[in-house]
């Protein structure tokens, strides 16, 4: 039963993102490059957040549990801020790249629109976020343990798969809204 759970949850979590990639991004090599670059920017933001968390844990020496709870909340908020700063940095990079592509050949429109780039970068952010949040859970579905023995939900893997799907799609939507706010200089949208 573990193999069907593994593949079922993998298809639930990553199936829609794979379909979006296959039908809208895979046909254009430039979009694939922008998707991979977006995933890389998310990885770098995760690296910086992890370095911050490691330093804070070493400095506080894991002594007081209530302080650790507040540090966890602060770390999560800081991680989101770092991630959004990297989304802004990626937007600025894409904006310069788009202007550079337009200056190479002004008659032919090579550069994709910023709305398309927002979608592609959001999908890149989301796929990488989903991979990091769900791969360990997915590998545990292959065994050797059984979920639900100690009062845990027997639907844990299914719930995790749907939550990963939601986070991937939210990254796509957040990317589109973020880029739109930057394009129109409406900072309250962000």
UniProtKB/TrEMBL annotation:
Might you report a single GO cellular component term?
gamma-secretase complex
Q: Where in the cell is it found?
A: Membrane
Top-level taxon of origin:
Eukaryota
Q: Does the keyword Transmembrane helix apply?
A: yes
Q: How does it sit in the membrane?
A: Multi-pass membrane protein
How does the annotation summarize its subunit structure? Component of the gamma-secretase complex.
- PANTHER family named in the record: GAMMA-SECRETASE SUBUNIT APH-1 (PTHR12889)
Protein name as it appears in the record = Gamma-secretase subunit APH-1
The scientific name of the source species is Mus caroli
